[in-house]
Amino acid sequence: MPVVAVQGRDHTWALHTPRTTYVLSVEQGEEARVVQWYWGPRLPDEAAAEVTRARPWRMETVFSADGDLAEALPVDGGRRWGVPSLQAVYEGGVRSVELAFASAQVRGGELDIALHDPGYGLRVTLHLRVHDDTDVIERRTTVTATKGPVELRRLDSASWLVPEQAGHAYSAVAGGWGRETQPQRGVLPVGETTFTSRTGATSHSANPWIMIGEAAERHGRLWSVALAWSGSWRLTAQRRPEGDLAVTTGFGHEGLSWRLEPGESLETPLSLGLMSDGGYGGASHAWHDYALRHVLPYPEEVRPVLYNSWEATWFDVTEEGQLDLARRAAELGVELFVVDDGWFGARTGDTRGLGDWWPNPERFPHGMGRLFDTVRELGMKAGLWVEPEMVNPDSDLYREHPDWVLHYPGRRRDTARNQLVLNFARDDVREWALGWLDGLVGDHGLEYLKWDMNRSFSQAGWAERGDWLWIGHTRGVYAVMDELRRRHPALRIESCSGGGGRVDFGVLRRTDQVWTSDNTDARDRQRIQDGFSQLYPARVMSCWVTDSPNPITGRRVPLGYRFHVAMAGVLGVGGDLREWTPQELAEAGEHIAAYKRIRRTVQHGRLDRLGGRPGLEASAVQYTLDDQVVVLAYNPFTEDRQGPWRLRLAGLDPEARYAAEDGTVWHGRTLTDHGMAVPVWAERGADYRSALIVLTRVR
Ligand code: GLA
Q: 149 falls in which pLDDT band (50, 70, 90)?
């Protein structure tokens, strides 16, 4: 049974996943507290009560108490001085929440614990869920105002007590535009460490997850917490002077508040918790597996090789130019042709036209139909770039609906990239967006949309419901995507926000892949992809091969290296094919054909980072599925060989033999425990050498 009521102890439950157990209870004294007792390797049912025998003694003084850290949702109230996961202000400015136990319900893998504040009327329900095929535990919270109005200053999805043995080492990602998901590791200091986004989207600068524990790539136990949300968010790790550690996370950033009228509820997004063994690699396996089993809409699909015209034409989009690129792309073996920004309204640059979603009559005198018909005749699917949440002030849409954007009366409306943000919390805005998107996708039978979002919120006012827009906008985007997908089951969506600004388990529920970064420089990409892979699977990571020198960094990287880096995810091509030499085109065709032979393994297999600092020294990444083992090995420098010398593979069948493409047969144990020498690592040569190594298990 996934959720078990612990025998001999009131209101105590053990939640079992295949390899872990999470024990919590409702402790009732002067108020009810939901207390976490255990989160670790799977316990037998009869042992679950033992973990509640006693909490370690801590000095409680009139100045401090540490009980709140163990709580599943510490409130702002009573003798608590930590970071509240729930902060409510009742009528008259009363702030101290006092909860009593109401009820608990178990249904299969789900446990709901309901509490209420009888004095002022607030119902708080903690929802927990476990599955039988993942160790990820899903938690969320619902609150309802049951008497008077309540102002919520904070409502996190969950707080997670990280057990003492985890220590205080953490792993996360940080970055910025063009350098998303840079791995960041360290030791959490005593105090409160907050990762957050105040931008209205997930952000480039941080991503909503943390892993805590003493681990290396292949060994060590880790406790991870993630948030499935694509708007502003906050994740705070509190390390107390006594050593205890808890992570609380939820939507919205500090300073927002949401007023509930009597009878109104607010439900949080999911917070996800995972305890895993096997180091950072083991944690990544479990998260990738979770994404494929429980998050993605069509996880079983193999994603096509796409071409995107952005870096080839920038805003200089014309029907003839796109047709030319489409013909060249088809010859390479591309399967999906995506027209990027610049095809609509008066959008010949980034200063105008955004919001006017009809084909530019000069650029597409016959509409888009002729282009897409040809794309299909060439054997490719058709896709289009859209940015539904944004508007240029110089557009028909804005002239007609200046009130649709986020704004405050009497305040400036600051633009960024010459655009303003449409308020997707508004019904009329969502109806408008769904209307034209539905028409566009339906009229052209589009198989793909690249859904972009190219600025952070500012002056984020909404006369009707104020701060609700921070939640309502994101939910509005979700709702439009969901309805569009419902109406067009063949449609697939790529989430983009100036590159990887909206990558998270919330958007991945309704998208099929994400644009990893606007930086397509292969060497920079290696580090970005390494950080990306910590939580998210290669199956969603869009990677393009673009031109050399790279338009953003100016770096020159050989075509083979660029392909091998992009083949580590969902391969695409984004270069100006009109400028590629016949030799380059021929080589590109070979790489694409090779990718098609390995992509099921790359997109669906187990991913192992084999060591070396990606982009900085020799490194490799391995993918394993059934009998196929795929390794992409890189060495960016001639002389600097501080990376590993021998390639030691991971997770092979120790009893089996593996055949390389040159006919060499290896014993599984040799490959994992001794390793093979890889010429691009071990031998002298030019900069930027890379190799694709494919092994097949032989019986
Ligand atoms: C964003 C995206 C790019 C491209 C441009 C178009 O920056 O990340 O890939 O689509 O917008 O304006």
A: very high
Q: Is 602 exposed, middle or buried (0-12, 13-18, 19+ CB in 10 A)?
A: buried
Look up residue 29 and give its two tokens.
């004294």
Q: Is 518 a catalytic residue?
A: yes
Nearest CA-CA partner of 472 in 386, 389, 387:
389
Q: CATH homologous superfamily for 300-500? A: Aldolase class I (3.20.20.70)
Nearest CA residue ID for atom 1, ligand 1: 498
Rounded to an integer, what distance in angstroms lies between the CA atom of residue 270 and that of residue 251? 10
User: Residue 276: which of 356, 222, 235 has the closest Cα?
Assistant: 222
Which one from 452, 504, 530, 608 is the annotated catalytic residue?
452
Q: Hey, where are the domains in the chain?
A: 3-50+66-294, 300-500, 620-697
Top CATH class of 3-50+66-294 equals mainly beta
Kindly report the backbone phi and psi dihedral angles of residue 436, in degrees, each rounded to the nearest multiple of 5, phi listed first.
Answer: -75, -35
Contact between residue 113 and residue 143 where contact means Cβ atoms under 8 Å apart: no
Domains 300-500 and 620-697 share a fold: no
% residues pLDDT > 70 (the chain): 99
CA of 216 to the centre of ligand 1 (A): 36
Pocket of ligand 1 (CB under 6 A): 310, 340-341, 385, 452, 454, 496, 498-499, 515, 518
User: Tens digit of pLDDT for each residue in 586-638?
Assistant: 999 999 999 999 999 999 999 999 989 999 989 999 999 999 999 999 999 87
What does each C-alpha distance from 231 to 428, 431, 453, 477, 652 come to in angstroms?
A: 20, 20, 12, 10, 40
3-class secondary-structure state, position 375: helix
Would you list the DSSP string of 587-627? HHHHHHHHHHHHHHHHHHSEEEE-SS-TTTSSEEEEEEETT
